Amino acid sequence: MAARSLFGTIRTWAGWRTRKLPDPAARGRLFLRNYAKKPVIKGGKGGKGGVVSDALKDPEVCTDPVRLTTHAMGVNIYKEGQDVVLKPDAEYPEWLFQMNVGPPKKLEELDPETREYWRLLRKQNIWRHNRLSKNQKF
Q1: Nearby residues of 16 by Cβ (< 8 Å), 6 or more positions away
Q2: How many percent of the chain have pLDDT more than 70?
Q3: DSSP, res 96
Q4: Whole-number Cα distances in Å, 8 to 4, 13, 18
Q5: Is the separation of the CB atoms in 10 and 4 below 8 Å?
Q6: Which residues does residue 9 pair with via DSSP β-bridges, in sequence order?
Q7: Model pTM?
Q8: CA angle 44, 50, 55 (to 5 degrees)
Q9: Do 54 and 45 meet the contact criterion of CB atoms below 8 Å apart?
Q10: Using CA atoms, how far apart are residues 35 and 118, in angstroms rounded to an integer?
């Protein structure tokens, strides 16, 4: 099929007939290619790697110990506005202080009767299987 259309012929019910390819330079026809325009880079010398938007700045580091103990620094996601003021511990739920924020527990430290133990065991077995099957040819 590709060879038939390559040589300019198509199959019809009446038989073979040749197909006339359009002439782009025919009279009354304008041959024009519309390529995408190159982007204009503002500023700089006009070379490669120009930055169109403003450069990002590092956040300011607060060294005031009073402010660090009374406000949650870096939590405000807006450009303008104050940092969030910390509330007393009594206003937060109990589970917040029982969360494990340290390194994850090892399998030997967990109780085999818990769901957490079996999830970690399954995850480790999947990792082991993936490591072993990485070297197999088929």
Answers
A1: 9, 10
A2: 62
A3: H
A4: 7, 17, 6
A5: yes
A6: 18
A7: 0.39
A8: 95
A9: no
A10: 59
Bridge partners (DSSP) listed for residue 85? 71
The dihedral over CA atoms of 122, 128, 134, 136, expressed in degrees to the nearest 10, equals -100
11: three-class secondary structure by DSSP:
strand
Distance CA 52, CA 85 (A): 37
Q: What is the pLDDT of residue 103?
A: 93
Say how many C-beta atoms besides its own lie within 10 A of residue 76's C-beta. Answer: 13
In whole angstroms, what is the distance from residue 69 CA to residue 64 CA? 9
Tell me 45's DSSP state: S
d(CA 92, CA 71): 15
- 3-class secondary-structure state, position 123: helix
Q: pLDDT per residue over 55-113, tens digit each?
A: 677 767 888 999 999 998 888 888 788 888 999 999 999 999 999 889 989 999 999 99
Nearest to 52 by CA among 35, 36, 66, 40: 40
